[in-house]
Amino acid sequence: MNSLIFVIDFDGTVVSHEFEKIGKDIGAVPVLKRIVDAGHRLILHTMRSDNQEIPVQNDQDKTDSMRGNYLTDAVNWFKENDIPLWGIQSNPEQSLWTSSNKPHGDFCIDDRNIGCPLIHNEDICSKPFVNWERVEDYLVINGYLTNQ
């Protein structure tokens, strides 16, 4: 099988929605490791950015701003979980054939995609997040991962 490229969102996809913090484990680690172990490549494609300024309410009912390296936090999550990224916010090879900033991939896993299997579990997060068991089943059924 040829190596495939998976474009992966972060908040609500790899971890629960907790921005600006890193969210809770939602089962992505073993599936992402299987994807990489099968020879496929991952591109992190997230709305997170470094030096990002976000508004926060202060005690005087005024809005202040807070800066953080939120993209680096997400990249570090992948490093801490021993999941190599082939690209971050871009496909490292596509500049050879396009100037588009949308990363090319064979699959996109994102909690905002129509048809992406989601879980609604208020004990973990108030927003729905990706159902990694169903994603893994799809990849096995369609021959992108082998049965374990």
Question: What brief labels describe this structure?
Answer:
148 residues; two-stranded antiparallel sheet; four-stranded parallel beta sheet
Question: What this model shows, in words?
Answer:
The structure is a single chain. The protein has one domain (5-141): HAD superfamily/HAD-like (Rossmann fold), CATH 3.40.50. The chain has 3 helices and 8 strands. The two termini are 17 Å apart. The strands form 3 sheets. Strands 5-2-1-6 form a 4-stranded parallel β-sheet, with helices on one face. A two-stranded antiparallel sheet has the order 3-4. It has a two-stranded antiparallel sheet with strand order 7-8. It is an alpha/beta fold and 148 residues long. Strand 1 (5-8), helix 1 (28-37) and strand 2 (41-44) form a beta-alpha-beta unit. Helices cover 21% and strands 22% of the residues.
